[in-house]
User: Fold these one by one.
Assistant:
Number 1:
Amino acid sequence: MDATTAITGFVALYIFMLAAFTGYEIIGRVPAILHTPLMSGSNFVHGIVVVGAIWALLNAATPLEQTIGFIGVLLGAGNAAGGYVVTDRMLDMFKSSDRQD
Amino acid sequence: MVSFLIAAAFFVATLLFIYGLKRMASPVTAPSGIRVAGWGMVIAVAAAFLYAFDVRPAASEHLGTNFLLALVALGIGVAWAWRSGKRVEMTGMPQMVALYNGMGGGAAAAIAAVELYSGNAQAYGFVVTVLALVGGLIGAVALSGSIVAWAKLDGRLNRTLRFNAQQLVNGGLLALAALFALYVLIVGAGAVPTTAITLFFIAALVLGVLLTTPIGGADMPVVISLYNAFTGLAVAFEGFVLQNPAMIIAGTVVGSAGTLLTFLMAKAMNRSVSNVIFSNFGEEDDGSGGIEGSMKSVDASDAAISMYYGSKVIIVPGYGLAVAQAQHKLYEFVKLLQKQGVEVAFAIHPVAGRMPGHMNVLLAEAGIPYDIIHDLEDINEEFALSDAALVIGANDVVNPAARTNESSPIYGMPILNVDYAQQAFVVKRGQGRGYSGVENELFFADNTHMVYGDAQKVMVEMIEAVKSLGNG
């Protein structure tokens, strides 16, 4: 839990606010033709949840926690890997149309 | 030292995520964008195993088992998702995105569950417990809701389950979940109320199912996008619980981006997000009463020849084109027209396909260059100037009732003005209605001709017709 400096109170709120604006700005500029790959790409990015699931599983102390942690890592890994493959395949198709933007 | 390494790795990973997402903003840099973000993920996951050096005292005796379990879970999850992701057809993309997204929501809910069952969240105080509960609720709703969305889009669940006072039941479930959450909060750092936590998660999962089942297939893109934003938020909240900045930032970025995308999509259909979720689309009167006239059909070859001698043709592709796998044949036909000097453009409705931009992906798959593919706003004026419009497998997005018939359920949705073209050819499998179940006036118009048949077969006939002209 304290591998990094604690993020609490207003620091947490600042991070939340800045990240929210970052997300808004990134999507706002994307052309409609990329909306599907981008939804899939952002789907991949929240696959970072697998990292938290790994932490939870490593810190599990009872069979119940171990079971839930195991499921969490399984699901998180599926989110990350699946999101990556699907996005990569979609974007590959844009590469094949050999025009400049 | 270890904690510094972990923190540094997460910093780099977060940087790569944001940089990668930014590169996805342009078709030229997008393929490298996902790779950049992918490396970020690899670094973050590798660093996560360094947590093993710093586990809670209670877990230290299980460390070996847990480490092994984590590796196995990671291996199975990655292997399964990698294979299924490689195999899925491009037309099946939306449901796979829904499924992977649901898994992310489930992982966030699992983290919340572990932290609540172990009493760790409660030990860190009120705020952390609230965040764990809210993240758990949203994650669980995203999990069960996404699975229903996947089942619907995949054709495994065709029924739209609706019953009276559904919103009342949903509200009741939410209140019930809130009640259990409140109980967990009141007990706080005392004895862990295992039953209440379990009931809390069950209520959330059932809520996700009941929220999603009444929503019709045509509205699914909005729902998938919404659940994508949900999962992002859930990940961010659990990130606060675990004090993991990479999860907080990545989750929040996705949460806000997904929310904006959801509203953009709903706007494209001229509906509010709450209208999508709480109204029963596709159930009301189909508004077909006043349509006069009859449908006229024409042979594929005649339609092809008439386009061949035109000077400007606009093609409106729909999901039916993709289902018939006719994109490649269509492009072959387009190239023949272009060789003859016909100006060809593609008009894409924002909700063509099953997700926004889905049709662009399907056309890109066939190698159609994206500089002849246009959005609704860019091309709608040009229909009046075109000799012919060719509609393939699209229906609701070209229905003039959206402009004229106030009683129609799709009234107010922006449509492609195919009816303004000199003439329109509509390739369609049969006389059935569109996804929304609404009758289409365009098909009855004087200058519209129907070309019945499977899109792929029709395109082959069109190609042959034009080729025989070239030879003769």
Number 2:
Amino acid sequence: MSSKSNPTAQELVQNEYRAGFVTDIESDTIPPGLSESVVRQISNIKAEPEWLTEWRVDAYNRWCSMHEPRWAHVKFPPIDYQAISYFSAPKGDKPKSLDEVDPELLRTYEKLGIPLHEQKVLAGVEEDPSIAPVAVDAVFDSVSITTTFRETLKEHGVVFCSFSEAVQSHPDLVRKYLGSVVPKSDNFYAALNSAVFSDGTFVYVPEGVRCPMELLTYFRINAQNTGQFERTLIIADKGSYVSYLEGCTAPMRDENQLHAAVVELVALDDAHIKYSTVQNWYPGDENGAGGIYNFVTKRGTCRGRRSHISWTQVETGSAITWKYPSVILRGDESKGEFYSVALTNNRQQADTGTKMTHIGKNTTSTIVSKGISAGQSSNAYRGLVRMNPGARESRNHTQCDSLLIGSKCAAHTFPYIESRRKDAIVEHEATTTKVSDDQLFLCQQRGISPEKAVSMIVNGFCREVFRELPMEFAVEASKLLEVSLEGAVG
Amino acid sequence: MADDFPSTNSNISTLLDRSRARATLDQLGIPKYRSENWKYTNPKPLIDSLSDSSSAPHIAPSSLGGAVEILPFVSAEAKGLISEFVGALANGMDTSMPSLNLLNLSAGYVIRTTACGNGESVVRIEANPEHCERVLIVVESGSTLRVIESTEGGNRVIECIVHDGGTLVHTRLQESTDSLDYSALAVQLGSSALYQLDQYSSGTRLRRNDISIDVVGEGSTIEVKGGWKLTGKSHLDTQISVNHYVPRSQSKMKFHGVAGDDSRSVFNGRIFIARDAQHTSAHLNNKNILTGENAEIYTKPELEIYADDVVCSHGATSGQLDEEQVFYLRTRGLTNQKARELLLNGFLQEVIEGDLGTQILGLEPMNLV
Amino acid sequence: MSLLEVSNLFVSVDNRDILKGVDLEVNAGEVHAIMGPNGSGKSTLANALAGRQGYSIESGCIRLDSVDVTSLEPEERSHRGLFMAFQYPVEIPGVTNIEFLKTAVESHRAAHGCNEISAVEFMRNLRSLTARLELNPDFLKRGVNESFSGGEKKRNEILQMLCLHPRIALLDETDSGLDIDALQVVARGINEFRSPANAIVLVTHYQRLLNYIAPDYVHVMMDGRVIKSGDASLALALEERGYGWLEES
């Protein structure tokens, strides 16, 4: 007697998180706790101008009277904000060249496949002379370790440096744009970030310049009981173009760690910013212990006419993801895009999506969201499309698909549509499906194992999003998806 | 805390178990503007109007034929049903308005089919402006009931139990143009039951419809269609949640709305599928056309899914008439206005069919444009 | 030695007995046609041989090259050279045909301990096959069966068969839904595949396909059993007289 039981989509996960190692390095860390004096201390360590210190203190005071948002479809025990350390940096002065960087740190980035030498491309991609090199800003806990290809970029007038450095070298630009997209009291986590942000990346692309290479910031949380609060500001001046990538990992630890970043993008007339993220923070173990709380505010403003901001994200990590990369379409004929793959497995929770606010005339936005839930995870899309009274003949199209793998996971869709403009068109479509037995059987009949079949089908489901990623990232994203799904079929 | 809520004393309210209503209010509080359930609609006028007493006499539901009994809440026969069901379905709704209804009740009736398999019974529920009333509908196993309901302002909560194999066909016409109108509708379906709702709402000062349909028996079917056409400064808020708790049921919801002039149209449609509700098929669609320069549309189709072997979809659109279609009709000799009227009519006809269609489309000419 | 040997096979689906003792022996170089009215169990036989979930083998045995495969996974049967062309090929959105075929071919090679095939060689082979099946080269870049016409889906099944070089091909109603031109293309593909080293089992409702692919044996199934076997003339007799006369006898 035998009845064929194809493994169902639940048996394949004993997921090995490949970036889960700890770097053994001495750090200067401010003891846990948050107060006005800690905020001033962080500002002091970074030798910041007074206006910035006061800006932080103001954010801190506002944060004190704010509450954590409760509307997201996620559950977690209360966070003790006094038990977190708000600053941690490898000991010693910032290295002036790669030779001065602690070899232990270099080995860390080598293991992660992040090139800190200027001749290599991202690991995992075969050497190919046709692939342009990538400039890297490596942020380790609260500080930037090094930034590569600075000279090449300088020749084109592109500024790519750590945020702390930009405060010193380009104070006017920082002062003009910091908080101009995400106000410091925008939300609880943004206010917290505004008070204690440590480092991050600053990019300025001057008028008419097409940035000659991809820019990558790689964020690594290493220290224990430390939060990471980076701040990224990207300004694309008139007619410029930049493609920016962001990667992130953290060691496997039993307790949850908080990551509350703020990213602000500003696109002036005819400028185009392409922002891609592959988020692989430690997701916690299969019982839900440990993992990163990823509470991030990302927003771009299409300030100029015909400006264009495009967010592409692949979210596979974090215990909890709370993140809505958004675009304010202020300039006439500006364009906003959001392409997202969010995969949750085991006990991960994700509440992610976007906000497209149409203010200018003839603005367009496109949203493509692919949610994959496996294990006992919960995956929600939350989006808002708003057509303001001035958004003449503006358009939005949203496609939002969920794929379920296994009978204990959950998939949700919460799209808000608000239109106050009769000639604006908003279209939203959503579907929920599973990997069908018929699809699995077809693959198996052609000799493909169920594990391989599921990962192939999931990759196909995500294709529309992956093709928006730069090539190096697309390869990494696809591999990551495979790793994250391990054990999801069973 | 609940004692602070507006409440009138009437004979009827002593019949009811008010403690449940108070407990709900204690837990949820009085509805507040800008809370998730009242994000785009201020409930205050609806709450304030609860203390207005109506000068008009209350009109009881009437039978138009078939094996059906209509019992006032005060009758002895109604007592058992009231204690078992009234408040049990509607008070679970997130909005707490049904609890305020219970505390302010001025009239209540039970409608119940008395025989099964003997064809269809028909009942009319009349409009009772400014009354605060409650209706309990019980469709016994295997029987079929058709309910024709009108509202023209007031506060009404209807709770429906459709037992195994029962059919409830509900036609609802909301026609007043200057009223405050709150309606809650809570339906519970047994196995192999059918619930069909056809609803048309005109624009009025403020109208809110809360609808919740629970599927607790396998193999049930839900078909909901709704249409509205808002003019002037009217405000309509429709909230519907279809909750599948057991396997193998199906639901289809389709809503078409037209918002003209300075009106505001709010829609929230939710499909909930519990972990055990495998093999469910559920679909929701809401299409909106804006014709007014200052009109506003707020729509949110939601999916909340905990079972994997299901087929679900939803869609929502907001836009205007297709200019290509308008042009096509004009090349065939129709005036611009006539063409638009015809197309808007067609748009609404997709959801307003049958009796309701003739009634509506016969009642008011399409002069939105 | 027979390529495929089915002995006394009983199969149930959803607790309903469908196959009630099927015997079938197919040798290298042979073409067998399995015919029969709707509901006779033809497709169930094909699916059970391929190991589809839900087709419970209650008793009996399936051997490929004398090896008992009755309890093997579908992909293991595939690696051993069993191919089934689906009556209703399923869509796999976003997975391109090329990616799908490459993965399938590599899975077979890995199972046999072969190295990966070079991309150039793979593509050269694939391009010549698509040309022979009169498929647009664009076809390879589209999602598997995604918005394919009925004819394209069936030709895609044949393309997969030609890529995987099975020893035994079960073609389940491959002629259904094809117009005459597509039918000829599909038949040509099958005839090209035919060789002394492999074998074909055609599951079909009509004689039509057999005009293009001459079978060596014809079996008639009814109510879960093979009730009559013969040569190609049996198919012609069925075409003329229907299935009724067999039922009576």
